[in-house]
Design goal:
The protein is an alpha/beta fold and 235 residues long. It contains eight helices and ten strands. Strands 7, 8, 9 and 10 form a four-stranded parallel β-sheet that branches. The protein has a two-stranded antiparallel ribbon with strand order 1-2. A two-stranded antiparallel ribbon has the order 3-4. Helix 4 crosses helix 5.
C-alpha cells in the first residue's frame, strides 16, 4: 500500500475510532428469532486496551434462552431450505457487501474489543467479506452442487444433490467474531454463542429471522446446553 493511501486510511480510522465511542456503554439485547430479548441480569464488557472503557452491558442468557434460540433456528430452517440455492447465496453476498462497505467502522470496533492492531482488524474484516464471496463463488462454480450422475439406461435419471442439512450451533472465535463459517449459512440455520460481544459485529451477521440467533451469557450455560439440544445436528 502506498504511503499516501496508508495516511488516508489512518485518518479514516481516527474518525471511526472517535465516532464509535458514542455507542459505548449501552445496554444491548440478545436477538432470537429476529426479536430483541432482555434477560434478568446483565454483565459488562470492557476493552482490553483500556479497562476503564465499558464497551457495553450485555444480557446474561440462560438455558431457557438457549432453547429459544435453537427453536428459532429450527423453525426458520424449513423456509431457508426451500429457497433456491441462487437465492441463498444472493442473500449472503448482500451481507458481504454490507461488511465491506462498513469495514472502517467495524475495524474500529474490533480494535476496541479485541485489542488487535488496526491493520490486523482491517484484515479480519476484509477477510470476512472475502470468505463469504469465496463460498458463494464455490456454489456458483459447481451449480449449487447439483450433479447429474451416470445412468444405466435412458429411462432413468440420477442426480447428486447437496441439500440444506439442519440446525448447527456455532461458537464464534474470540478474536474474530465476523469470520463465521459462511458455508454453514448457505446450507444450515445456526443458533450461536459469540465468544466476544461486539454489538455492531453481531448486527451485521443477522442474515434472517431465526437463521442466526445470537445469545450471550455464562460460558458453562451456553457450552453445556447447546450440545444437549436434540434439534442441533451432530458433526
Amino acid at each position: 500500500m502506498q504511503a499516501e493511501r496508508m495516511e488516508d486510511l489512518h485518518r479514516e480510522l481516527d474518525r471511526a475510532s472517535t465516532s464509535v465511542k458514542d455507542t459505548f456503554g449501552a445496554i444491548d439485547s440478545m436477538y432470537i428469532g429476529g426479536m430483541a430479548v432482555v434477560a434478568n441480569t446483565q454483565f459488562e464488557d470492557r476493552s482490553p486496551i483500556d479497562t476503564r472503557i465499558v464497551l457495553g452491558r450485555f444480557q446474561s442468557g440462560t438455558s431457557s434462552d438457549v432453547d429459544s434460540a435453537v427453536r428459532a433456528a429450527r423453525d426458520a430452517f424449513s423456509g431457508w431450505a426451500r429457497r433456491r440455492w441462487e437465492d441463498r447465496i444472493s442473500i449472503l453476498r448482500a451481507l458481504g457487501r454490507t461488511i465491506h462497505a462498513r469495514r472502517i467502522e467495524l475495524s474500529a470496533l474490533m480494535g476496541y474489543e479485541s485489542g488487535k492492531s488496526r491493520i490486523e482488524c482491517l484484515g479480519d474484516v476484509g477477510e470476512s467479506a472475502d470468505l463469504i464471496e469465496y463460498y458463494c463463488a464455490q456454489f456458483d462454480a459447481h451449480h449449487g452442487f447439483i450433479r447429474r450422475m451416470d445412468a444405466l439406461s435412458a429411462h432413468e435419471e440420477n442426480l447428486s444433490l447437496l441439500r440444506p442439512y439442519g440446525v448447527w450451533s456455532v461458537i464464534a472465535p474470540s478474536t474474530s467474531l465476523l469470520r463465521w463459517p459462511p458455508a454453514l449459512w448457505a446450507q444450515r440455520s445456526c443458533p450461536a454463542r459469540p465468544a466476544v460481544h461486539a454489538r455492531a459485529e453481531q448486527g451485521e451477521s443477522q442474515i434472517g429471522y431465526g437463521l442466526r440467533a445470537t445469545g450471550c451469557g455464562p460460558q458453562d450455560v451456553m457450552d453445556c446446553r447447546l450440545p444437549e439440544a436434540p434439534e442441533v445436528c451432530s458433526p
